[in-house]
Amino acid sequence: MDVADIPAVPEWLPEHLQAAGIESLYPPQAEAVEAGVTEGENLVASIPTASGKTLIAELAMLASVARGGKALYIVPLRALASEKHAEFEQFEQYGLEVGVSTGNYESEGGWLAGKDVIVATSEKVDSLVRNGAPWLEELTCVVADEVHLVDDGERGPTLEVTLAKLRRITADLQTVALSATIGNAGELADWLDAELLDSDWRPIDLKKGVHYGQALHLEDGSQRELRVRDGEKQTAAIVRDTLEPDRDEDGTVREDGGSSLVFVNSRRNAEAAAGRLAGVVEEYLDAEKREALADVAAEIRDVSDTETSDDLADAVEGGAAFHHAGLSRGHRELVEDAFRDRLIKVVSATPTLAAGVNTPSRRVIVRDWRRYDGTAGGMTPLSVLEVHQMMGRAGRPGRDPYGEAVLTASSHDELDELFERYVWAEPEPVRSKLAAEPALRTHVLATVASGFASTREGLLEFLEATLYATQTDGRDRLEEVTDEVIAYLERNDFLTRDGGLTATNLGHTVSRLYLDPMSAAEIIDGLDAADDRPTVLGLYHLVARTPDMYELYLRSGEDEEYTMLAYEREEEFLGPMPSEFEDERFEDWLSALKTARLLEDWASELDEDEITDRYGIGPGDIRGKVEAASWLLGAAESLAGELGLEWTPAIRQARTRVEDGVREELLDLVSVRGVGRKRARRLYDAGIEDRAALREADKSAVLAALRGRRSTAETILENVGHRDPSMDGVEPDPEAAPTDGGSTDSDASSAGTKTDDQASLGDF
To answer: Where in the numbering of this chain does the Helicase ATP-binding domain appear (predicted)?
Structure first.
């Protein structure tokens, strides 16, 4: 289908697509148009990565806006939201307004009312529904990207319930659901009353196979030699082969070498593999690429003063990198950008990179197809769906002649098993996880509090519009779990059942705060137990033991250390400490204590590299814990106010300290825009102890404290209201110079830096 023949889209769109080199649609895109995606019809599209899913979404959204509507694009991760927002901004030249929102779970997002296309995470959309955002009623099209994640135990129920609520709010809402891997796409189409587009068409071939011995065995039964040198790792041999240019028989280069994406099962393995593979890549780098990689490595070192940052920079200088959730957002973005530009030639990653972020490569290598599962007590195989998501990263149209996805086998039996288990297998069916009690207690309260149900029958009627009900025969299990959840919410004064179901004032607050009701109950009980002003450790421990905080686990030998600490600081705990004989509860208590101690260290200005070393984590983990603690303490402050408790000032101070990573005496200074934890400490040590002193400070002292950075000093003085912020002719006062050695001045890279988004549960 020619782009000029697409019906019901804005007049400018065909010419816009042609200018981008798109004269005709891919077959799946044409099928979507024929199914009515530009004319308001619901659609479930299960098509491979790189086959044009995003354009299908754009056609639906732009056609909807052209009819006077408003479109919403739901993604699973904040990183993916940023990527899609940047992609959709191209349409602003035609008068469309595009917005993105991923944080601030207490807001109705009123500023989004003026946007035509909105990109948001499912958690953000859920919070908008809970907070009664009126503009949701104006939606005419919703796109759910990576819809197979309804199968995810953590995120899935939120996406499922959110789609059900949006469809209830707007009866004629067009729903478009996208995924590369759905084993039961027809079932999802039935749930969403949608047409089904199920295609395996790709613009370039994806070859799947297994490497074993000295050969690559492909799914069509063919083999080709891929030798492993003496002393060489199997993965290194495959990466080296990918880097080799394709040549004709006369030696002429037909295609340049490609990039590789290697999936492993742990952060440690990702980092170790990147270090080794850099040695493979280095011989393929020319002087120009080495110089460009050195620049990227320097940027990486500027992100944080940690061993992780240095290790990543060292690998990048050799043309390799690692990628996992322990990296800071700045680290991940630098790696992803350099990999997309084919500057970095190989990335070793945990499966987080397979979750939708645009990082294609010539060859995907699934090195580890098992990972540790604590619930199973050992290593378990990855799902077919997850491995196929990884494989789908292989091959980019216009950049690669083909894509190749390779698993690695160490025996002939394993070779056969991998073909049966993954290469020839279909993805597992997507199953709803809504009936699990932790998910249901959150969504039952929100459903009642936001007015979607006011009786038990009304609640069950709403739940019957979910995927879970579609996949389950009869109501018995749903009724049983729902009744248990209602009873729990009533016991904790979140709901009442007098003639129906009504959320209490406290229940409304908990729902608006986007808390798991069990987290709210834990916080309330803890604050009620306080006899004196809570300490920061006590408050950090309180929020660390809620279900909404992912605790640090105890490493081997740490039980005794944290048991001793627990008894030393027992008086600070908010609530009774469990007995050592209650094994599981006591271990959870100690894990929360370890998490709280990390937060206390951060709020006591311990250096980032010391924290990562002490707790065996990455800079991204610090960021995640700080964000979660900030959000939960903000919720605790609201709950304390709701209940009339006297501890709100203590909670507010603990929250501010962990947000900014500072001791109490620096709180006033870090409130100045541009002053983070390191700059505040330097200013304080130079005798400039608060905003008022900074406003009247001698400029030479300020310049010295800020390491001679004139533009930074001018900006900070301007922000604080100094009468003359100019640094023209000012020289640093040597007596005010900082004495903290070689630490960087990069406040913007610290884990406690404030961003436009409110702190959240993590990197959705």
So the answer is: 34-200
29 is in an annotated binding site: yes
DSSP bridge pairs for 98? 117
Of the pLDDT bands very low, low, confident and very high (cuts 50, 70, 90), residue 639 is very high
Whose structure tokens read 């639906």? 60
Which amino acid appears at position 21 of this protein? G
Q: Is the pLDDT of residue 752 over 50?
A: no
H helices of 608-728, where? 608-615, 619-643, 648-660, 667-670, 677-685, 691-695, 699-705, 710-720
To the nearest 10 degrees (0 to 180), the angle between helices 583-603 and 619-643 is 100
Residue recorded with tokens 């299960």 = 46
Distances (CA, A) of 624 to 158, 508, 583, 595: 20, 26, 27, 11
Give the separation between CA 258 and CA 264, rounded to whole angstroms.
20
The number of residues in the chain equals 764
Q: Is the pTM of this model over 0.70?
A: yes
More confident residue, 82 or 93: 93
Per-residue model confidence (pLDDT) at position 714: 94
Please write the tens of the pLDDT for every residue from 159-180: 999 999 999 999 899 999 999 8
pLDDT tens digits along 581-612? 998 999 999 999 999 999 999 999 999 999 99
Contacts of 53 (CB under 8 A, 6+ apart): 45, 47, 145, 178, 180
**Residue owning tokens 């005709």:** 24
Does the CA dihedral 527-529-533-538 come out positive or negative?
negative
DSSP codes of every residue in 172-193: T-EEEEEES--TTHHHHHHHTT
Strand order in the sheet with 403-408: 223-225, 215-218, 206-212, 403-408, 363-366, 260-263, 346-349, 320-323
Structure tokens that stand for 753 in this block: 């830096």
Q: Could you tell me the two tokens for 58?
A: 């754009």
Please name each of the domains of the chain with its CATH number: 12-198 (3.40.50.300), 206-247+254-423 (3.40.50.300), 437-513 (1.10.10.10), 517-661 (1.10.3380.30), 667-720 (1.10.150)
Tens digits of per-residue pLDDT, 713-733?
999 999 999 999 999 999 998
Average pLDDT over residues 390-405: 88
Residue 436 confidence class, pLDDT cut points 50, 70, 90: confident
DSSP 272-319: HHHHHHHHHHGGG--HHHHHHHHHHHHHHHHH-SSHHHHHHHHHHHTT
